Amino acid sequence: MLLGASSLLLSITLCAGLAPKGPWDAFNYAPASKLVRPVSVRSTHGSVVRAQRLVKDASAKATFTGNSSYVVLDWGKEVGGILSLTINDATPASQFSLSFTESPQFINPDRSDDSCHSTAAGDGDGVQSFRAPLTKGLLTQTIGQQRGGFRFLTIVSNSADPLTISNISLAITFMPHWDDLRAYPGYFFAPDPGFHDVDFLTKLWYAGAYTVQTNTIDAHEARLQPCPAAGGWANDASGGPVEGPILVDGAQRDRVFSVDYTIDSYFASDYTAPTTVPTDALLFRLIPEQKKRDAGGAA
Ligand SMILES: *[C@@H]1O[C@H](CO)[C@@H](O)[C@H](O)[C@H]1NC(C)=O
Ligand SMILES: *[C@@H]1O[C@H](CO)[C@@H](O)[C@H](O)[C@H]1NC(C)=O
Hints:
Keywords: Signal. The protein is an alpha+beta fold and 299 residues long. Helices cover 14% and strands 25% of the residues. It starts with a helix and ends in a 5-residue tail after the last helix. The structure holds 2-acetamido-2-deoxy-beta-D-glucopyranose (2 copies). One 2-acetamido-2-deoxy-beta-D-glucopyranose is lined by residues 35, 58, 84, 86, 138, 167, 169. One 2-acetamido-2-deoxy-beta-D-glucopyranose (NAG) binds next to strand 5 and strand 10.
């Protein structure tokens, strides 16, 4: 197993604290801030005036004119949390919706990729709609409305009347117990000159570490089951018999319990629980613990 092999190569700091700085930091996917913004406009359809401004600075505005006009914003990587935007101008008839997807394959102004409503096409989640009349000012999703994992956000006008917005941001909710998402205690760096991508193993390790982070959520932000009958999703259910952060199976969809227990238990080793895994067991902590055990010390 790849991760098993990587752990053999892992360089670790034996004392508690942060990993030393080094070339490996360039591979750390975790954002420097828990408040992130979209990084580029992937596409626009219909009429979205000055759409590029939505990724330039927080106060720059874009205007949708025309029913079904939409913009697709790319956040550059998987993110998850509570979305906010400012409604600067709207008529009494302006209205809009949001749709979300992890993969560009599911970009669609009318649908989000599956987290709650499973369909053969994989796009059963619908949209989050904000109906007329809108209230000007800052609009923020509730905890339940948050998407656990997405990279692409589509904002679509559902009215012929204009709508002007700005200040799109996301308050990341995963790893609720860490202020600095990049502050890994361990690090990994294993250039392989014999492979076409010399950094392949290093990238794998950091992708795995970030995946564990995105799957580590507050115990009260799990996916509601059964899903809301009216459509959409709800991510404010209880995820466990435990308090504190839990490690779930997937940031976007499997915010429930660790079905792939054999995989998760590699990360979570000896901190087993029947349906959820307390995140004391995260990879970042496990590796030094494992090392201690391998060396004959008590973990
Ligand atoms: C912009 O969004 C942030 C949240 O990211 C919020 O604190 C701020 O008040 C907003 N600004 C305006 C002008 O609405
Ligand atoms: C907007 O377009 C959609 C799809 O064509 C249509 O179903 C809807 O009635 C239109 N809404 C308005 C307010 O014109």
